[in-house]
Structures are given as structure tokens and as C-alpha cells.
Description:
By secondary structure, this protein is α+β, with helices and mostly antiparallel strands. The protein has one domain (2-48). 37% of the residues lie in helices and 12% in strands. The chain has helices spanning 2-7, 21-29, 31-34; strands spanning 14-16, 46-48. It has a two-stranded antiparallel sheet with strand order 1-2.
Amino acid sequence: MTLLAKAFPKLEVCAAEVAQATALGAAIAMHDCWNKKPLPKNLITLKKIRV
């Protein structure tokens, strides 16, 4: 993430503070297929990457 932030200094680069964020993203993408309840609003927290 630091390399991305350095490569694109005009953009704000953020990373999920959740472990296994990729797996969580996949679960969110298919959420409607297996669970009709709404997703919590605070499921993912982001942290800004500063260089």
C-alpha cells in the first residue's frame, strides 16, 4: 500500500483494517444470495496510508 501511495501521490490510498479483507469483500459481493438481512454500516473500517 505504501508503494501505491508513493506511485500516486495525488490520490488518497486507503486499506481495510480488517484481517482477510479480500475474503470479506467476496462474502459481501454474494451476501444477497444467502442472507436477506442488511449489512452493518460499520463492517469495514479504512485507514489512510501516508507516505
